[in-house]
Amino acid sequence: MERLERCGRWLRAGLAAGRVRRRLPWLLLAIVLLGSALKDGDLVPETPMRNKRNPLNVYFVKVAWAWTFWLLLPFIAVTTYQFAESKFLYGPMKSILTVLRRLSTLLVGTAIWYVCTRLFMYIENLTGMCSTSSKLSEPRRLYATKQECHQDNGIWNGFDISGHCFLLSYCALMIVEEVAVLEGLSIEQNSKLRVVINGLFVSLCFLTVIWVFMFLCTAVYFHDFSQKLLGVLIGLSAWYGTYRFWYLKPFSPGLPLPNIPLSSKKYSYSR
């Protein structure tokens, strides 16, 4: 428990000035630019991360939104309720309504994930052609989708917007936005609630490190530059359009409490 407390305190200190939230979008863009340059210059060494079947890709990245969703759900619920009750002195019912409003952030994120991934698949199918090793005497078959092509052991050549660059950037930025609420939340030192929140917080920070690392691996090993750049720009646009624009409006899931503008000096984690 003591180690968890020290770890949580150290990680919170890193978020105190809001530097991570301010610099992470630029870091992600820099990774795409530099990673693509290394890839195009054939300067990247052979490592297990080049294999798409590596454990981090199979067990984490392939289900990145599920990991992000199920860790953020209890974190947002507990911290929002605690903040509403202890700082704003809301009653139980108003606190619960505030929690439900904030949890709708995850529904928005799910909609963004679903629409964007479906759009990427549609674009790849629309722009692609299938290359197969069929004999010249056999009639040439037309394939409508990447899945049909792969069923005949073909190779689909289409414009494959990097879903990894999109989703990993969006998930990392979303987590960093949500965990910053801890800078204004005070909890009793030895309470069970503090242990739960610290555990969720440390887990989310660890998950963010994985997302950024796998984002780096995608940048240096996979996709063309334009596919990666477009993917990360869509991820950044989704984050900016929600946390920097829509969530500032009254009819929205709202920002993590206490909804202070970024320029305010009252809270270091403020928006």
State mean pLDDT (0 to 100 scale): 86
Main structural class:
mainly alpha
Give the biggest sheet.
2 strands, antiparallel
Please give the radius of gyration in angstroms.
21 Å
- Low-confidence regions: 260-271
How many H/I helices? 9
Number of strands: 2
Distance from first to last alpha carbon: 31 Å
Q: Strand order across the biggest sheet? A: 1-2
Work out the strand percent.
Answer: under 5%
The SSE string, one letter per element, is: HHHHHEHEHHH
Written overview of the protein:
- Helices cover 63% and strands 2% of the residues.
- The chain is mainly α.
- Strands 1-2 form a two-stranded antiparallel sheet.
- Helix 2 (19-40) runs antiparallel to helix 7 and helix 4 runs parallel beside helix 7 (163-179).
- The longest helix is centred in the middle third of the chain and has 36 residues, at 92-127.
